[in-house]
TrEMBL record:
The record marks D218 as: Important for catalytic activity. PROSITE patterns: AP_NUCLEASE_F1_1 (PS00726), AP_NUCLEASE_F1_4 (PS51435). PANTHER family: EXODEOXYRIBONUCLEASE III. Residues 5-248 form the Endonuclease/exonuclease/phosphatase domain. The keyword Membrane does not apply. Probably binds two magnesium or manganese ions per subunit. It is an enzyme of class 3 (hydrolase). GO terms for biological process: DNA repair. Signal peptide: none annotated. This is Exodeoxyribonuclease III. SUPFAM superfamilies: DNase I-like. The active site is at Y106, D147 (proton donor/acceptor), H248 (proton acceptor). Belongs to the DNA repair enzymes AP/ExoA family.
Amino acid sequence: MKISTYNVNGINSRLPVLLRWLALAKPDIVCLQELKAPDDRFPEDAIQDAGYRAVWHGQSRWNGVAILSRAWEIHETRRDLPGQAGDAQSRYIEAAINGMLVCGLYLPNGNPRPGPKFDYKLQWFQRLHDHLAGLVGLDAPVVCMGDFNVMPTDDDVYAPDRWRDDALFAPEVREAFFRVLDQGWTDAVRHLHPDETVYTFWKYWRGAFERNAGLRIDHALLNPVAAGRLVSATVDTRPRGWEKTSDHAPLCIELTPS
């Protein structure tokens, strides 16, 4: 079973890239972020023509998340995290698929720091922490994937000293990430590749992708049941090199069948 997460950076403007990648990689389940489209602008017909069912939680111009499934029905279980009534930002969606719980998220960027956007990022991270605490111990596999907007360690950024003041690299944010892991979640990439350079994001300018001057900000966290089935965790860099593409590349994990 191949499960992927991909920040598409605008699903309608990047739709040819997404469809090309789906046809090439054939993931079974995909979590998408940064749809940048309201619910009524989600390209449902094109996604269905590509062979995928979908649930989505859109937002005009910003944010937006979705989950796609190629072979199985999707049973949406939640959109939005608990803990803040009236939160208008579309950043979380959750669904039961083939006996598995899939959580797709787009954590706030938080810049500039300090400021209200950074405060919101920390608050949102705490809400995620509290919600995942109730999921980690489930008897079924749980996969939490998406753009976390955090580089957990110096090994996850090409030039750590350039990022010390950035909200994605702030000590409070890194600590929040590890507090989630301490609940019993497994960081799939670091579990299988503890010492390798692995990036999922490269800026558009200064040849960042060509120089591999990247960041690892997209993550896949697995509860113990899912971690026991983990086979591989890789970044598919092919679409990052295509024209009119996202600045992210898909992160893909494989699990053995139940």
